[in-house]
């Protein structure tokens, strides 16, 4: 069996032992700071087409800063972000959507006064006209929000709000979806539903997902590759299956 352990943007082998193809997203030696605090310290990783890459680590490891820097919400002090061969390090946040990147931040940011359907429409504003079939697809993916499409978003449960913000992001037709702590505060049953749906979208439609999670067990159960961060640095990159089986790594960095 091929050795799958790798660091940075080096290719990570699949469980069958063959390396993944060209990366859709590459993060190269990325450094970001908040004042004097260096949140990312030379982080390198890759996210491949049609795979889930889980970024794991304790609070303060730099996971959220990584997604915010990749999507342009935080400006890096050095390093590069490359999407499908194009350097997007200095691109505007707005232009990221047109390039095929959708970022779902932590916190389930619905617009409480708008209905569920109006919230979905926000996700497609930059596209102009969107066919009814595209909204129907989101409702098919998330039957629970379909039942509430005409209700204001503030009546939704936490799980329903998470489904709504993911559905809204999918209406932008992303090639890569950046998800920040989607399991936070949700019941295990709802987490399993959401992660199972992500896995189906990746397998059936070739969507790429960069998933930031503190719930390492759930994330690794659906991911292809895991990247472990500690104090702003990559500790290890490996197949999700290998990381799940590494008892020393689990106890040291993943909390289970």
From TrEMBL:
Residues 25-256 form the ABC transporter domain. The keyword Nucleotide-binding applies. PANTHER family: HIGH-AFFINITY BRANCHED-CHAIN AMINO ACID TRANSPORT ATP-BINDING PROTEIN LIVF (PTHR43820:SF4). It comes from the Bacteria. This is ABC transporter ATP-binding protein. Transmembrane segments: none annotated. Keywords: Amino-acid transport, ATP-binding, Nucleotide-binding, Transport.
């Amino acid at each position: 069996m091929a050795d799958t352990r790798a660091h940075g943007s080096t290719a990570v082998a699949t469980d069958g032992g063959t390396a993944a193809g060209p990366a859709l997203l590459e993060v190269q030696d990325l450094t970001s700071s908040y004042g004097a605090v260096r949140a990312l310290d030379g982080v390198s990783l890759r996210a491949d087409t049609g795979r889930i890459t889980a970024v794991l680590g304790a609070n303060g490891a730099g996971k959220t800063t990584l997604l915010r820097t990749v999507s342009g919400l935080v400006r890096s002090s050095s390093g590069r972000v490359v999407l499908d061969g194009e350097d997007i390090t200095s691109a505007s946040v707005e232009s990221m959507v047109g390039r095929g990147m959708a970022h779902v931040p932590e916190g389930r940011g619905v617009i409480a006064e708008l209905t569920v359907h109006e919230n979905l429409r926000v996700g497609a504003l930059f596209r102009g006209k969107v066919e009814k079939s595209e909204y129907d697809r989101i409702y098919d993916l998330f039957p629970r929000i379909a039942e509430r499409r005409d209700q204001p978003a503030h009546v939704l449960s936490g799980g329903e709000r998470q489904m709504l913000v993911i559905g809204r992001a999918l209406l932008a037709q992303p090639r890569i979806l950046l998800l920040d702590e989607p399991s936070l505060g949700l019941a295990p049953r709802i987490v399993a539903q959401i992660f199972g749906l992500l896995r189906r979208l990746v397998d059936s439609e070739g969507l790429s997902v960069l998933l930031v999670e503190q719930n390492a067990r759930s994330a690794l159960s659906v991911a292809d590759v895991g990247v472990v961060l500690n104090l702003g640095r990559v500790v290890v990159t490996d197949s999700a299956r290998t990381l799940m089986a590494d008892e020393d790594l689990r106890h040291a960095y993943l909390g289970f």
